[in-house]
Amino acid sequence: DIQMTQSPSSLSASVGDRITITCRASQGIRNDLGWFQQKPGKAPKRLIYAASSLQSGVPSRFSGSGSGTEFTLTISSLQPEDFATYYCLQHNVYPRTFGQGTKVEIK
Amino acid sequence: EVQLVESGGGLVQPGRSLRLSCTTSGFTFGDYTMSWVRQAPGKGLQWVGFIRSKAFGGTTEHAAAVKGRFTISRDDSKSIAYLQMNSLKTEDTAIYYCTRYNWNDPESAFDIWGQGTMVTVSS
Hints:
A: mainly beta, seven-stranded mixed beta sheet, four-stranded antiparallel beta sheet, B: 123 residues, mainly beta, globular
């Protein structure tokens, strides 16, 4: 199975901060990776697909990069509505695997 | 409007069975591979399995934790995906989500999710 190591597991940041979340795959997955945001009591929401393509309707402060084994999600200027948990998901091979999640909290 | 709506969750005793449904609308269901993902209380997301579209064989893949106990199926005439869960264990307690992916359209990968249905396995 491919392990997706996501870091950090949590972070505290202020409105306006730039933050980066990383997912490392235990083997190459090309660009078969998505990033998802989840707020309490809600279903996951896709932000990024194919590692770097922005989901329609998602603010441009979100961006994704990477290919192969290392991927990043960047929020360029954190907004109040961005405080949530973020997950990566690889769908290159099965079993599909998620990162452990990164909880972004208000400092 | 594209919609996925899960149903069928509830409280069930260990060892019993439950069938979840993912009722869809607003898109050509038959073109999509349908996946199930679960989330135990306070935990992260876990892939449960998927069923391929008929164009890719209509076959299934399941996570090791549920293999042999859970079965995914689909009814393209009704645009519904199912998750049959047998021999339930307390560790299967989770919210179960369905999501879609058209393998001919990379842009569609897990783009839409249902609201989830809660399954509680307890005596």
